[in-house]
# Entry
Amino acid sequence: MTEKTFVMLKPGVLQRRIAGELLNRFERKGLKIVALKLLRMNRETAEVHYAEHRGRDFYEKLVEYTISGPVIAMVMEGEGAIAVVRGLTGPTNLLDAPAGTIRGDYAAQTRLNIVHASDSPGGAEREIALFFRPEEFFPWEDGNRGWF
# Structure
């Protein structure tokens, strides 16, 4: 089933200049980028985005890290996009993230993770609406569909 999911590359990605490498991984897997922007998130948006973690010991550090520099927010589309992106990113805990996943290959600290990916259809819908207006989507037909 074709679905959309939200992905955010956090400040460490831009600081380390690896955005292109990570975007390439998503595209090579056959996902389509249908919305993308570079932005500096304010505290209020970060707190809404991470509301489910409010009260946990890492919450404040997570919010501070996320607003410390620009992020790349994007919407990916494809067959089973949520599961595909989660598979590419790997588990949040770096000790569990195998080589070959984004977190396994690039992340240095679990709580200062370099990528966020929606974990469910409801989460994707909420996160997409937080960062993108309908006119910011650019759906396109894949002329190579079936070649991958």
